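Now for one record.
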Amino acid sequence: MQVWVSEIMLQQTQVATVINYYNKWMQRWSNLQDLAKATLEEVNEMWSGLGYYSRGRRLHEGAQKVLSEFKGDMPKSAEELQKLLPGVGRYTAAAIASIAFGQVTGVVDGNVTRVLCRMRAVGADCTSPSVIESLWILANTLVDLVRPGDFNQAMMELGATVCTPKAPLCAECPVQTYCRAYQRVIKEQEMVSKKLPGITVSKISSTPDIEECGGGGNCPLCLPDKEPWDSDLGVMNYPRKPTKKPPRIERTLTCVVTRKRDNEDAEEYFLVQRPSTGLLAGMWDFPSVLLDAEVKEKKQKQMISDRLTELTRNLVASTDVQYIGEVVHIFSHIHQTYLVYSNLFNDTTGDTVKQEDLEQPSCRWVTEAEFFQSAVPTSMKKVFRLFKHSSVMEKGDKCGTEKLGKEQNGRKHRAPKDLSGRQLSMDSFLRPAPIKPL
């Protein structure tokens, strides 16, 4: 259970970020039975802020599946784990199988990929299927037969602490003698120190070392290496950076709807639950509308008011929707811009709308404290902070205006006086003060 939870949490997330989430999770659900009994809402609330929210949902589904289909007996081989458990891919399956159950299998994650690419001087795109498969073969060849779990954790730790993306600690690396990237750096330094006539650094770096290549010069891991060697980067030339696919650009209208609690000054906020599948599945948002094209503010207000009318079953006029500003949030594959509006809930039906009437299965009113305790994505917390800031600024402007108005209405305008109490003319008031001689 512990290995499974930790490996799922560590997918695409750094250890420093995961530690607190992991400890809180294990304190609440220390075994499969407890996790399986939890609701999806509770799981989402516990996962809130960690990102990639489908991971928590898959853990929950996996725990229920292990109990219902396998009688609580966790699959033990990498093949079964990957095939039978939701959200468990090739790496996660191999990590659980080797660390928890001692299966002799290697692992390839981001850290191990970097270590292997530098040790083997892999010049090909490490994200291509053929290179990924070759790296798995290398990992399975290197893994220790007696302590596979410890070996795999050591490889991952090596990449995380020594063979880092930037400023690697090559002088402290225990496997530097096996690292082709490091040997290439040493050879370059030696050749430069000898200052051989007619030989430049670029010529040294581009000369292939055929006898070290197991493919006799035709190795698929080496042939694609057409990128020039940068002497300043050293071993950081590997792994070669793949061409990143640009994120999808999206713009979304979202509205913070507020109302006063009965006989109280505290405000409540209207939330809508997202669908059970897709991005941020099951999380809670402010009412939102995805924009398919650029539209002017007048049309945006109408779209928001229509959405609010639909959700609250209460007529909302576009004039009651006020623009606040924009919030940008970057998901792993989406560059999202939220156009933020606000609305003060006002019952126009003629009858008092009860809270239970509004709380459909996918909608609810929450206090500010309940908002932060709910399964709310980071993007909506940014929207909420913008709303609170705009509210403070608006109140400040009103207070300043009211104070100024009272001062102006409460006393007559008086011309400025000098320190002696004499009345000053406007000319004398604006005239620069005479400079006294030293």
Notes: Residues 201-212, 404-433 have pLDDT under 50 and may be disordered. The two ends are 84 Å apart (CA to CA). The CA atoms of residues 361 and 406 lie 49 Å apart.
